[in-house]
Amino acid sequence: MAGNVDVSQLKAGLERWGREVLEALAEGLGQSGMQLLNDATQELPTVPLRTDFLRGSGSVFVNGELVGTSAQGEGSPATEDENRGDDAKIVCRVGFNTAYAAVMHEGRWETGPLAGKEIQNYSEPGSGKYYLSRPLEENGEEYIRNAAAHARGKLGM
Question: What is the pTM of this model?
Fold first, then answer.
C-alpha cells in the first residue's frame, strides 16, 4: 500500500521560521554592531578625538541596510553599503567614512611621501591605532552572545 503525504504546510512553516530566525539574528547583530561602534568611539583606545571628523563618520550596516551612525562628532557617516550579503548569510559591517580612517587604524601611512612611517602622536591621550579591531577582539564573544540573546528573546525562546 502506498500513499502520498502533503508536507507543503510543514515546509512553508519551516521556511517562515527560518526567515524569522535570520531576521531576529540580523537585528541582534545590528545592536551588537552599534555597541562596537560605541566602544570604538567612547572606550580606550578611541579614534582620534581632536576634530571629531573620524569619530563622527562611523556607520553600521546589516546586509547592506543602515542600522545607525556615530552618536557624536562632525563627520559624514556612510549611508549606503554595497556589500549586502545574501539571504542565507548575515553580514554586519562597522566602519568609518574618512579617507584617513585606515591610516589612523593601522597607525602608519601606506602611500604618499610618508609611506611606511609610523604615526607617533595621536591628537588626544588614549586615542590610537586599532581603535576598531581592539574592541572587536576584546569583546567579540560578548557581542555575539548579546546578538543571540536578542534573537532568543525576539523568538520567545
Answer: 0.84
Which amino acid would we find at residue 121? N
Residue among 67, 66, 35, 39 at smallest CA distance from 55: 39
| Cα 2 to the center of its chain, rounded Å | 53
* Residue 72 DSSP SS3: coil
pLDDT band, very low/low/confident/very high, at 85 (cuts 50, 70, 90): low
The strand pairing partners of 95, in sequence order, are 59
CA gyration radius, the chain = 20
Cis peptide before 45 (omega within 30 of 0): yes
**Calpha distance 17→11 (Å, rounded):** 10
The widest CA-to-CA distance across the chain, in whole angstroms, is 82
Q: What is the pLDDT of residues 51-79, one digit of tens each?
A: 688 889 999 999 999 999 998 778 899 99
DSSP state at residue 75: -
In sequence order, what are the residues at sequence separation of 6 or more whose Cβ sits closer than 8 angstroms to the Cβ of residue 100?
A: 54
Reading the block at residue 127, the C-alpha cell is 586615542
Alpha-helix residue ranges (DSSP H) falling in the chain: 8-42, 101-106, 133-155
